[in-house]
Specification:
Blueprint lengths: L6 H11 L1 H5 L2 H9 L13 H4 L1 H28 L1
Length: 81
């Protein structure tokens, strides 16, 4: 029995209607694309991050490293002094 109480339907309804939900799925899309597990029946999303998930992931990795490597180095220097 599938209806409004089915959690699967609710998830797909939210994903279809909310661009924010699509924005948060970039990592899953990246992994699917890298492993060749893409579904041609699903239309290409309009948001840039979902059209280029590998590049988007690499950009976030660089941003995180640029923020946290200097912070960790300064914390290490303070702790070792």
């Amino acid at each position: 029995m599938q209806g409004a109480t089915d959690p699967g339907n609710a998830v797909f309804r939210i994903a279809d209607s909310s661009e924010g939900m699509l924005e948060s799925q970039w990592f899953a899309t990246t992994v699917r694309q890298l492993f060749g597990n893409t579904n041609p029946a699903i239309p290409v999303p309009e948001v840039w991050s979902m059209q280029h998930p590998v590049l988007y992931t690499l950009i976030w990795v660089v941003i995180i490293l640029l923020v946290f490597v200097p912070l960790s180095i300064s914390q290490y220097r303070r702790a070792s002094a």
